[in-house]
Amino acid sequence: MKINYCGGNFMYENIIEMIEKKDFEKALNEVEKIEDEKWEKYNLKGLVYFYKNDLEKSKKIFEKGLEIEPINSDLLFNYSHLLLALGEEMESWRYLMRMHEKDWAVYDILGDIEFKNRSKASAIKFYKKAYDLNQTEEMAKKLLEKRKIIKKNEKIAFFCLPGLETFIKPIAEELAYEYDVRLIVSKEEKEIKEGIEWANIIWIEWANELAIYITNKFNLTDKYVINRIHRYEVYSNHIKKINWNIIDKIITVSKHIKNNLIEINNDLTKKIKVINNGVNLDKFNFNKRFNGKNIGFVGYLNMRKNPMLLIQIMSRLNEKKYSLNIAGDFQDITLKEHLEYIINNDKVDLIKFEGWRENIIEFLSDKNYLISTSLNEGHPFNILEAMALGIKPIIYNYYGSKNQWPENLIFTTVEEAINIILEDNYDSIFYRKWVEDNYTFEKMIFQIEKIVLKKDYIEKNIKHFKFIKIESSIKEFLKGETFSNSLQINFSGKKPLISREELLKDVSKDKKVIHFGFADHLELIDDKRKNNIWLHDKLVESSNKCVGIDINKEAVEYISENLKIGDVYCLDINKDELPEEIRNEKWDYLILGELIEHVGNPVEFLEHIRIKFKNICNKILLTTPNAFRSINNYFLQKDIEIINSDHRFWFTPYTLMKVLTDAGYDADSVFFTENYQNYTSNQIEVLENHPMWRNDLIMIAKF
């Protein structure tokens, strides 16, 4: 809480001293002497009740102060601090972002809120700003630790034609805090090819000539491909020339652009996600505005922008001395000629063409209204930015507008536009709040992170993963029909990198599975469930049906009675009969996760299992630590053995095949997995190219 401001006012200093000494009643008596119209009264009074722990009363008092001074930094900071105490973190974020001058502590809090609730990449941005303003060892350590936590291994290449990078550049910069990113603004084949070869995620900005070229020229089978569509593309022939088969996800900036795209190609429906544009509120400082006579227009001047309607509206307002300033270049010389003729002929003399303005914030600084007369839009930034500043927008009723903006700000006729401008209703806070609730830059980044670059990318990786089939020539050695004292089996070649959990979820999806040895160590179960890493939960979630079998009676009883998880059985496979519920089903897989390395006689153990399950189960799937994992080689070079003290064996692909064959199974396929989430991009690349160096060995065999 900021209780150390006073601006040299002796009375305020005394009140602050009383608050610090917890002499609250005396402080309140002094506060009541301050004039009601002064924001300081409500700031100090709110502080008193905050420290008295009467948070709801403190909240109402701060809000009254904000009605007087909505952008006062002390009020905003203290009110935000109160909201944090009430657990309203995103509301706290809203008011902190309204502060014009933010110190390092504000950015640090913004980072904490963002990190916990929304975009991890945006959180790092705020932490970095905090560090830039407070370059202490503590802040540097926090920034590095947070970035290490979130750093992902995916490499994203953003492709955009020169001159069209305005919208994608800030997105690429933000995601670079979390991913390895390259922004390739080029139409040169060499640069494009290098970017495609480097990345595993391809983002093509705009569905234009570049999208046509990339999707038809390059083999992108092992890439995750994203295309973002803004507006004009759905009205061009480009859409029909793009190879949509290799695009995994399409982002449209609005729902109505999505609908337009579906009308053209209904097969794309499942690929489309709507992610609206977002405004960086840290750049667009809110100020409370009022009715006035200054109207702004921002955008290129062409027929789609419907400037004739703009002139009709201004001609009606001319007598009332409303002025219109236009920031934008003409894209049609005949339109320029026509507008100048109409303006001069009708004596609409308060219209000024300012040409293109780089600094839109400066242009809008004295405006009371932003008018948009466009016939067609995607999700226009000019309206978003004006509302973020607290300016009232006057919006023509283009297709899709009512899904984006408050209806009371939308007009269809000239008369309706005039009424919206002349009415008394003007609510700057409402306009700003509309953007805060719906269209922040951080929300957009969060949607990209969560909807596109995580869940769907993993699905793409899994989609392209295939088990390595065991060749029949190898089976001759497994059965002892052929012998070699230096047999070589080649597992080389780039393979998708997925984790053991991802693989098992994919294999068991919509299948009937028996999870053998499901229980885990009793003392670890609750912690693993809390962290969402208990394998049995994952298999139950992904499979059509999953039963668990384990010899650990105490663990099975705990899972059944305390966790209320059904279809779990305590069985000694060597002695006990299978329950009728298991015997009477046909099962796709029997899954043994990290179990075989604990068994004293794995051949005998697997033989018992085969006899027990061969008539009811199609395949067995085993996972075990890989003897060739890279960490073993690392410690080998130091003459150190690293081992789980409960393990009895290390398995290589061949030795596990041999054990399965000796136990009467037909070894079918193999794969290697690694929990890669916290690895660097270089580590990922090495493990993709050298699958045998991964931690886990997965094998499937037929009964």
TrEMBL record:
Glycosyl transferase family domain mapped to chain residues: 285-402
Gene3D superfamilies: Glycogen Phosphorylase B, Tetratricopeptide repeat domain, Vaccinia Virus protein VP39
InterPro entries on file: Glyco_trans_1, SAM-dependent_MTases_sf, TPR-like_helical_dom_sf, TPR_rpt
UniProt-recorded name of the protein: Glycosyltransferase
TPR repeats: 39-72
Key words of the record: TPR repeat, Transferase
Species the sequence originates in: Geotoga petraea
GO MF, one example: glycosyltransferase activity
